[in-house]
Amino acid sequence: MPAPSPLGPIQKAMLAALKADEVLQGLVTGAYDYVPERAVYPYIVIGEATEIPRNSLNRYGWETVPTLHVWDQYRGFARVLRIGERIGEVLDHQPLALPGYTHVATRFEFSQTLTDPEPPGDIRHLVLRHRIVTERPV
Asked: Under CATH, to which class is 7-108 assigned?
């Protein structure tokens, strides 16, 4: 039987790393899995993820790619880009504590800036993805 997915522990570890960084917390009002109704901009949300197997002879393995969203109402993209830069400093090539799994690597993979087209049209959105490679003995 295959080992359980590391997606839950990865989400928990990423959220803990983001919340623990004082510099990042000075740039945002919060980091969430579920955004409170009265959340104030700017904030970070851990969103969707993809996961593919990366097994070997004696190890289960996964490549998990969670998506982070930075939301803001600042005019222009400067602030979400600064937040995204700090997220990279916190996560890229940094170890994650994943009980029951071996963290192999975390690598920045993708970012995209977007403007929410819905009225009032002043929402800035930065999408970030990091590829997280994990293993577990068979």
From this structure: alpha beta
